[in-house]
Amino acid sequence: MIKGSMVAIVTPFKDGKVDENGLRELIDFQINNGTNAIIPCGTTGESATLSYHEHDLVIDIAVDAVNGKVPVIAGTGSNNTQEAIELTRHAKSAGADAVLMITPYYNRPTQEGLYQHFEKIAGEVPIPIVLYNIASRTGVNMTPQTVARLSMINNIVGIKEASGSLAQVSEIINLCNDNFSVVSGDDVLTLPLLSVGGKGAISTVANVAPADTTDLYNAFMEGDLKKAQKFHYKLLPLIAGMFLETNPIPVKTALSLMGKISGELRLPMSTMLESNLNQLKKIMKDYGLL
């Protein structure tokens, strides 16, 4: 289930509220272009700006819109263990297939604290859990040794690795068994990660180029490295465009330029600087999206 090109889908807003129709249309766009799983309420989904009601609502909409066609892996992480448990319970009751759980941010727990946090949640809610390691956002890096300990818990089934270190990814894969899925959380490292035994990617750029991200994965799995490399290099400029400013500002702007959503952001996310917007438009035009 935790494999392939999986999209960390944006949360569209309209007039300050979750745009249900917009989200459903984005999900259809993803499924029609071969995306292997939908991940609502992640970083790209502006989960940190959603109220509890909205967080639950986005997951409910995603599960209903997907209608069993692909897995739904709902973001339910928090720096508050009990809050994470409650969000995870809702995701399970809503029908999510698995959950994605970021390491607690701001608290900066020790490795033992990280272990106990995830162990507690896994014991409280019987649903497959995918860990999410991104020290640049959270202030703490979960070591391969801690990941290996957690991988021994039955319902902790994988990790979205966004440390930016291929060495760390390799060590995790080496320490964990083959049933534990290590997937990329950094689009530029998707192909390198696949080459060392990773199972796929939870992608930002897939929001705007779902077919190409899926084709990269499929080409690699079919043993066509040249074709996978072609998509890797094709996607590189677009990936750079998605991170001209803090995610998800550029990707929501890009989807707006494509006519998919309004592009509305929530503070503290703000609209792109004009210079960056012009650069994004050029990248998208060169790619063929505009």
Walk me through the structure.
This protein has one domain (4-222): TIM Barrel. The strands form two sheets. The chain has an eight-stranded parallel beta sheet with strand order 4-1-10-9-8-7-6-5. It has a two-stranded antiparallel ribbon with strand order 2-3. It is built from twelve helices and ten strands. The protein is 47% helix and 13% strand. The protein is an alpha/beta fold. The longest helix has 18 residues, at 225-242.
Radius of gyration: 18 Å
> What's the architecture, going by CATH?
Alpha-Beta Barrel
Name the beta content range.
5-15%
Query: Order of helices and strands, N to C?
Result: EEEHEHEHEHEHHEHEHEHHHH
CATH fold node name = TIM Barrel
Query: Strand order within the widest sheet?
Result: 4-1-10-9-8-7-6-5
Look at the structure and give the CATH class: Alpha Beta
Largest sheet: 8 strands, parallel
Structural domains: how many: 1
Low-confidence stretches: none
Number of strands: 10
CATH-level-4 superfamily name: Aldolase class I
* Individual helix count: 12
Shape: globular
